[in-house]
Structures are given as C-alpha cells and as structure tokens.
Amino acid sequence: MKKIDINEIIRRLELAYPDPRCSLEYDKPHELLIAVRLAAQCTDERVNKIAPALFARYPTLEAFASAEQSELETYVHSCGFYRAKARDIIAAAQMLLRDYGGEVPSNMDDLLKIPGVGRKTANLLLGDIYDAPGAITVDTHCIRLANRIGLASVKVPAKIEVALRKLLPSDKSNDFCHRMVLHGRAVCSARSPKCAECCISECCEKHI
Fold first, then answer.
1. Which pLDDT score, from 0 to 100, does residue 1 have?
2. CB 3.0–4.6 Å: which of 88, 94, 206, 207 could bond 65 by disulfide?
3. pLDDT reported for residue 205
4. Rounded to 10 degrees, what is the CA torsion of 106, 107, 110, 114?
C-alpha cells in the first residue's frame, strides 16, 4: 500500500472499538455455527431474538441432530429461508456427531464439509472459537469497507480475503474484521456514510 497505512487503520479502529466481538449470542461452539447459519440474509439482531427459545428447545447437539425439521422450522421461521436453514442445521448437527466427535472442527477443510458452512462462516468459527491466526471473515460490511477504504478493488469475497491476508498481521485479522463490521454499522453505512465522524477518514483512499 503506497498511501494507505494499514497499521494506522488498525490502531484507530482499536481505539474506536476496544471490544470487538461477534454480535451473535451463544454459549457453545455449535450454537455459534447454528447462529451464523441463521444470520445468512438476516440480521444478527433477529437471530439473537429467537436464539434463547431455540437453544432452550434444543439444548444439545444431539437434540438438534434428532429434531423434526417441521418443528425446527417454526423456531427459525422469522430468520427467512427457514426450510433450507432448518435442513442444514439438522444435517450439520448429525455430521458433527458422526464425523467429529460432537466438536466443531478446528480446520478450514473439515469446516467446509459441513452443510451450510462456507468460507465466511468457517473463518468466523476459526477466529472466535479457536483464536486461529489469519482468520478473515468477509461479510457485506467488510466487502463495502475494504473497497471504500482502498484495501481491495474487487467485490468477490474470496479475493478480498486473499487481499486482506496479505495486508493484515495474522494476530490482528479476526478482531480487525469484527471492527470493520462495527464501523460499518455505526459510521460507514451503505447508503449514508458519516465521513465527518469517521475515525479512519484520514487513512481512507476516498479522502487521500
């Protein structure tokens, strides 16, 4: 990067968002996997509203694995695409029990075998559950901000992941992505970015 200082961006985001964490609420690793699946094309806020009743009804991985899809659908209906999500959740629970001893895998290859899990979900699980260095979660906020700031010049998530991996220190990448989400929600929104209030505006390609 010739003009944009990634370390300065990291420093400023750290000051602005000292407690970066996934906004999805969960207690167990498999609950995070399920919550992320439900959050696809749905807000984290909506998922958090239905999560208490969902996890109370299905308190264990075994309970999800043996769930009746039609009943599970009633719990996740408000998250949209409820049939596909319920199907994937049951299949994922069954796979975790059958192939991984009831544990969420700690490597990308195995995570990608799980129904409903793509690279975004896999990176989030690796970063938040296992503190894996180099985990880069590319969601819609990350795509938008990375392009606006000048950290990437493509909209393809896999290519943005590669671009950010070249720029970010591996021990900072997971928290950086969480901070991008927080900044995207609070300041750098899709339709009306608040550039005058932006803590990284001086580092942003749009303003250099």
1. 43
2. 94
3. 79
4. 60
Cβ neighbours, 10 Å, residue 192: 7
Cβ burial of 196 (10 Å; 0-12, 13-18, 19+) is exposed
- 25, 48 in Cβ contact below 8 A? yes
- Residues contacting residue 73 through CB under 8 Å, at least 6 positions apart: 82, 83, 86
Q: Could you tell me if 177 and 136 are in contact, meaning their C-beta atoms sit under 8 angstroms apart?
A: yes
Q: Decide which of 2.60.40.2150, 3.50.50.60, 1.10.150.20, 1.10.1670.10 is the CATH code for 6-20+134-203.
A: 1.10.1670.10
Contacts of 161 (CB under 8 A, 6+ apart): 119, 123, 136, 138
Residues with catalytic roles: 120, 139
What tokens appear for 67 in the block? 């769930």
Write down the mean pLDDT value for the chain: 95
Q: Looking at domain 29-130, what is its CATH homologous superfamily?
A: Hypothetical protein; domain 2 (1.10.340.30)
Identity of residue 192: S
Residues 96-105 have a mean pLDDT of 98
